[in-house]
Amino acid sequence: MIHRKLRTTPAPERAFGWRTPLLSGVFVLALTAALGSNPFTASASALQLHGALHRSETFGIISHRGAAALAPENTLAAMRLAFEQGVDFVEADLHLTADGVPVLMHDPTLDRTTTGAGPVSAHSLEQLRALDAGSWFGRDFAGEPIPTLEEFLDELAPTNSRALIELKGSWSDEQVAGAVDMLRARYLVDRVAFESFELENLERLAVLAPEYARVMLTREWDQPTLDTAAALNVSAIGARSKVFEADLGLVEAARVLGIGTMVYTLNTEQQWRQARSQGIDLVITDDPVALETWRENLSGDV
Ligand code: G3P
Ligand code: CA
User: Fold this and answer.
1) Helix axes 249-256, 223-231, angle to 10 degrees
2) H helices within the chain, ranges in order?
3) Per-residue b or e along 98-136, where b marks 16 or more CB atoms closer than 10 Å to that residue's CB
4) Domains of the chain, with CATH numbers?
5) Nearest CA among 263, 200, 193, 265 for reference residue 234
6) Lining residues, ligand 1, CB within 6 Å
7) Phi/psi at 112 (nearest 5 deg)?
8) Among the atoms of ligand 1, which is closest to the Cα of residue 166?
9) Angle (CA) 248 253 259, round 5°
10) What is the mean pLDDT of the chain?
11) CA-to-CA separations, 191 to 142, 157, 282, 284, in angstroms, rounded
12) Which residue has the higher pLDDT, 94 or 9?
């Protein structure tokens, strides 16, 4: 297993991003053996999703934390609105409760978006159920609960929407497998991709659920990072614009490898124009309706 995050890895240790050349070679061999040469050959529907993570005429749109401009982020109210808006992907964040249940929350603590306080991971699901995750946003959303992953998937399954689910923090094999089982039970392989900053999570997903597309989030952008993404066989890499701007040539290099690029969180026309000129595949925004209108008006100007 990988024991460090990319951003804390000293450069001299990175041959495939985080290990000595020997260990990297072993890791890549093990991963290749587990995955086959291409994990997407196993499933036409997964291949479809892989394709959706790459631009055609212009970038795809991802609704950040649900329709977070209109409803409290990562609640079912925000997710339902985002499904209605019908953009390319709806993004959600997952933390684990003290009893290991995945719930939709962005922050590691409850303070900003709920009536609770302290770490999410210090509370059981039952304790979280007593909290209000909507009032901070507006009175109309008072009593909105913190949803579980299962509840979110039950809302997603009957729609045509696609979702990008971020695993926050470190997850064990059992915790990753538990989340994957929930997706498999609902046949969501062609509509859900995972993302994470944690390489261990991506590695676990690659081994335990190779049919599911993965997006590697990063705070660094250099050749070793791209090598790591290639070794992990991810469909795309996600980062802030400033991170990619460290080397825009590598955005094209990623594309040549079949790895898309996704930027977050862009809310102005100037940022959207810039992402388009940089060849970015996917844009995460808090205002997907405005971005979709802007994108539609580009027709004939691609
Ligand atoms: O999905 C990428 C992006 O959402 C990561 O940033 O802090 O909004 O989870 P954050
Ligand atoms: Ca996120």
Assistant:
1) 20
2) 21-35, 44-52, 76-85, 125-129, 149-156, 173-185, 199-208, 223-231, 241-244, 249-256, 269-277, 288-296
3) eeebbbbbbbebbeebbebeeebeebebeebeebbbbbb
4) 2-108+147-296 (3.20.20.190)
5) 193
6) 64, 91, 93, 106, 166, 195, 217, 238, 264, 284
7) -70, -40
8) 1
9) 105
10) 87
11) 30, 9, 15, 17
12) 94
Tokens representing 169 are: 């923090």
Amino acid 41: pLDDT: 40
Alpha-carbon span 211 to 89, nearest angstrom: 18
Instruction: State the Cα–Cα distance between residues 228 and 219, nearest whole angstrom.
Output: 13
Which residues keep their CB under 5 angstroms from ion ligand 2? 93, 166
Q: Which atom of ligand 1 is nearest to the CA of 217?
A: 2
Helix (H) or strand (E) holding 166: strand 163-167
Q: Would you state the pLDDT for residue 40?
A: 41
Tokens of 263: 């930027």
- Cα–Cα dist 282/225, whole Å: 19
Nearby residues of 271 by Cβ (< 8 Å), 6 or more positions away: 241
First to last CA, the chain: 43
Can you tell me the distance from the alpha carbon of 35 to that of 211, in angstroms, rounded to the nearest whole number? 9
Interval 134-160 mean pLDDT: 98
Tell me the best of 61, 88, 217, 235 to mutate to test the pocket of ligand 1, counting ligand atoms within 8 Å of each CB and taking the most. 217
Nearest CA to ligand 1 atom 7: 106
Comparison of pLDDT for 208 and 302, the residue scoring more: 208
Name the closest-CA residue to atom 5, ligand 1.
264
Asked whether residue 302 carries a pLDDT value surpassing 60, the answer given is: no
Residues 192, 104, 89, 40, Cα dihedral to 10°:
-20
